[in-house]
Amino acid sequence: MSDMGEEVAHYYRHPALPEVDLLRARFVTHRFNRHAHDGYVFGVIDAGVEEFEHPGGVQRAGPGSIVVVNPGVVHGGHAGAPEGWAYRVIYPPVDVVAGVAAELGARPGTPVFPDPVVDDPAAADLLRAVHRAGEKGDALAASTMLRTALTGLLTRHAHDIRRGDASGGAWGMPRAVREAREILHASLLGPPSLDELAEAVGTRPFPLLRAFRDTVGLPPHAYLNQVRVREARVLLDEGLRPADVAARTGFADQAHLTRHFKRTLGVPPGAYRSARTIGRVGARPAARES
Length: 290
Hints:
Number of strands: 13
Strand content: 15-25%
Largest sheet: 7 strands, antiparallel
Shape: globular
Radius of gyration: 19 Å
Order of helices and strands: EEEEEEEEEHEEHHEHHHHHHHE
Structural class: alpha+beta
Number of helices: 10
Strand order of the largest sheet: 11-7-4-9-2-1-13
């Protein structure tokens, strides 16, 4: 990834832990929409600078830094320098990270990393090694390196344990927001208007909008698109074609799905589907997808 002139992304699965996704990418003009993941994000910057929105303010991560995003935390991402940025990202689910924490003697709960940008050369090298082993399909090395990297990150950088649901669930949410989320999850194809949603949960539109945004981190319409993308991932994992997935998840068409999917995951749905059904794929910009 020494040439920073071209955007490219490779999305694939961990060879030993298929629930762990890996992304190796170079982006210049690409921007990630504000979104959240059910699991963790650990990204090593190989070159350039990534700038990303985070509840703690706008963050910048340069070469060698590790970007850390906790489950359910809304964030964005874009280039922080004219040449863009190149990085390797690992997306482990909560149970994988919590399992390692439990083996280290942590109290029950979900580990929390307070710092969104971490300077830890040893962990960065291990995360890169996970990628190299994963690209070769070396399950033993990839799983060993991942466990070792997570052990170091947890030991040196996880300062707290969050109890309850840490993946964007309903724990601690106001009743109206919790019920509004449930309605949106059940209404991918025919969602209500904001007025209808507010009436259904017994409140007014503006108070609901404000409470939803303050609690979830996104307004209802943007949250709904995130739910649609998550459901699209499930259907793509099952092998459905992107056009069929778009129709089943409430997107206007495949282009609409592609736009939201790529701005959330960094690759278009066709490339993601290939990676999940075959194991690894190289993806070009969404406009080139057929």
